[in-house]
Amino acid sequence: MRVRFWGTRGSLPVALTAGSVQGKIAAALAAAGGRTFADTAEAARFAAETLPFSTYGTYGGATSCVEVEGADGAFIVCDMGSGLREFGIDSFRRIAGGRPPVYHFFLSHLHWDHIMGFPFFGPAFNPAATIVVHSGHPDAEAALRRQQEEISFPVPFEWLRAKFEFQVHEPGVPFDAAGLTVTLAAQHHSHDSYGYRFEKNGKVVIYSTDSEHKVENMDAEKAFEAFFADADLVICDTMYSLGDTVSLKQDWGHSSNVVAVDLCQAAGARTLALFHHEPTYTDEDIQRMHAETVRYEELVRGDRPPLSVICAYDGLVVEV
């Protein structure tokens, strides 16, 4: 399977400010130390090899949207955050001259940051397209229709031309979709949230965001250890540091990088992707949390196999 990250922020989209861009340029120039480059390609190589990612790149600002490739030719997308717009544009490129497209959406929950991209999803206007929305929520269709009411958006849901199906699934009961075996898990979050386990040919990808795991109640998390078991990739809500979750933001419905490592290590997962980044965090803040998470994993690993810790960003592609 191939996993593409189209949106990795939580709560609301953010954009790089002029000051942030200027700071990156100034840091790059300082790192170059007066060095000259024959062309932009040489300068790009220097930047990629020398500069930290927080200077050379950006973790992005679109909200949750993750694509899972590797099924029967249909598109598989987790959540409809603001990153969905770019995915929709890219999918047009990939279906040119092909068969009528089918999109399978798997919604973690119905909060605005996870569905706000749908009104800008171009393929929804394609009469040849089929859109299947999978959820644990019986009111998923109502949520999508409501955000396109006239008071909120100028284009009503009824103007969309794709064929729609809404399927509600029971947690813990596997089902087949687009060539994958999928299982839901109920998560602790306002108005409920659901994680997804995708399996194909012995490979496992977990999408688990907007789920609060409390470090003082890890005995209750045994179900998640089973849900994450032997996963090749766990995309996990790590919005806050442990200090934030226990002091300032307890019961806000999100989890920490430390708890994510603990769960993945106990489950025998191979790779953890930090996800649903706090919108107030700068690129430097996110990179710092990533480094701290890698160090924590090394300290508590013991005799267990290493857990690879990566940090999701808009545009990241992971082969599973």
Question: How would you characterize this protein structure?
Answer:
With 320 residues, this protein is an alpha/beta fold. It folds into 2 domains: 2-14 and 58-319, Metallo-beta-lactamase, Chain A; 18-56, no CATH class. Helix content is 28%, strand content 23%. It contains 9 helices and 14 strands. The protein has helices at residues 18-32, 40-50, 53-56, 84-95, 140-146, 222-227, 242-247, 257-267, 283-300; strands at 2-7, 65-69, 75-78, 102-106, 130-135, 163-168, 175-177, 180-187, 193-200, 203-208, 233-237, 271-275, 308-311, 317-319. The strands form 2 sheets. A 7-stranded mixed beta sheet has the order 6-5-4-3-2-1-14, covered by helices on one side. Strand 10 (203-208), helix 6 and strand 11 (233-237) form a beta-alpha-beta unit. Helix 8 (257-267) runs parallel beside helix 9 (283-300). The radius of gyration is 20 Å and the shape is globular. The N and C termini lie close together (5 Å).
CATH class of the largest domain: Alpha Beta
Q: Please state the second-level CATH architecture of the largest domain.
A: 4-Layer Sandwich
Structure annotation, total helices: 9
Domain tally: 2
Fold-level CATH name of the largest domain = Metallo-beta-lactamase, Chain A
> What characteristic shape results from the CA principal axes?
globular
Number of beta-strand segments = 14
- Tell me the β content: 15-25%
